[in-house]
Amino acid sequence: MRAIVISGGGSKGAFAGGVAQYLIEEQKRDYDLFVGTSTGSLLLIHLALGKIEKLHSVYKEVDSAQIFNLNPFYTRKKEGAIQLEMNHFNVLRSFLRGNKTFGESKNLRAFLERHITAFEFESVKKSSKDVIVTVSNLSKNGVEYKSIKDFSYEDFLDWIWISANYIPFMSLVSKNGYEYADGGLGSIVSVDRAIEAGAKEIDIIVLRQEKKQAHRLPTSNAFDLMLGMFGFSLDQIEEHNISLGEFRAKSIGVKLNFIYTPTLLTQNPLLFDQKRMIRWWQRGYLHAKQHFNL
Predict the structure, then answer these.
(1) How many degrees, rounded to 5, is the angle at CA 185 between CA 5 and CA 134?
(2) Alpha-carbon torsion 37, 40, 45, 50, what sign?
(3) pLDDT grade, residue 216 (50/70/90)?
(4) Mean pLDDT to the nearest integer, 142-150
(5) Residue 235: what are its φ and ψ, rounded to 5°?
(6) Which end of the chain is more exposed for a tag (fewer CB within 10 A), N or C?
């Protein structure tokens, strides 16, 4: 069994799309299992169907308005760079609505329903391929993996949406009596799950550099500090996921092929800039081409 695993990484998911396009179209890799976390989960159904061009066109449409119905951020240019700043008015609106998070991402759920049809869902579900997304059950304090084989169309779209909800900036979702959020809070790179499913060779797209070289920019306010703190915690989770996956793979003879970003793409993965994401898709494709032709 061959699997592909795609990590979380917000807007950097566009880079993963380019890498996956090269692997599927040029390397002719036929995957039995697709596993994703957060932004990685958004790619999986179209990849399983081989609908790369549709997926590419969908990513060209993504911006903050397609994700947030109540955006806790606004953007501004500082020294030529685009930065995220806290939108105090929207955060206050969110709290006045009784929300538990700074913003709401209901637009993302609607976006998924527009671009993943019931027919596409059923086509994957009835095939021999499996699609698994990672979610965090905050009520049970644990990670859960949701397979397309076990759910209806509406339910599985919920799980994809939940997997990508980076709290406390996006929606906290109550489902089946539990509170759920971004799968990356527990497992950013779900290599271990692919091994458990029986994969013998796994291509793993990790949306960060293999060797971290850049320092985070100094924090300018409490909101910026919170983003940095969450980023630090997720980095540690990611390192643990990779180390555990490598250990298990070595012990049972599973082949792992890691593909990292060659440079730091962004320190603000919640900034969804269409022009940058279009460039990242192309960079992902070219990087994969170079990686596999060394």
Answers:
(1) 40
(2) negative
(3) low
(4) 98
(5) -60, -40
(6) C
